[in-house]
Specification:
This protein has about 110 residues and is of the alpha+beta class. The chain contains 3 helices and 4 strands; from the N terminus they run H-E-E-E-E-H-H. Strands 1-2-3-4 form a 4-stranded antiparallel sheet, with helices on one face.
């Protein structure tokens, strides 16, 4: 019978889900610990994993990736993802035009 329950496949799915859930619990635990230690959760997100960015003693970092997050790294990641998603030529021209206007305005 083709619609028979596949215990091994179901067991594997549950194991994978448990692993994902465990990783989420560990990340939440790290974030809670950071808050208790005086770190601040910002409204920014890590450009790598989309976890909330925290600040502590003037340094912004991702508790999940365990790396420093700067404005520049966020902007670079954003630009790279826009290029990867295939912005249209028209959109590129508009962007270049805005950049030129900003450049002229600052002179």
């Amino acid at each position: 019978m083709s619609d028979e329950f596949d215990r091994d496949a179901e067991r594997e799915k549950l194991r994978e889900k448990y692993e994902r859930d465990q990783q989420k619990r560990e990340a939440s635990e790290r974030m809670s610990e950071l808050l208790l230690q005086g770190a601040t959760m910002t409204n920014r997100h890590c450009p790598e994993c989309q976890s909330p960015v925290f600040t502590y003693e003037g340094t912004a970092f991702c508790p999940t990736c365990e790396r420093e997050v700067t404005e520049e790294s966020e902007a670079e990641r954003s630009e790279a993802s826009e290029r990867a998603s295939g912005r249209s030529e028209r959109s590129e021209r508009r962007h270049a035009s805005r950049e030129a206007e900003r450049s002229e305005a600052s002179n």
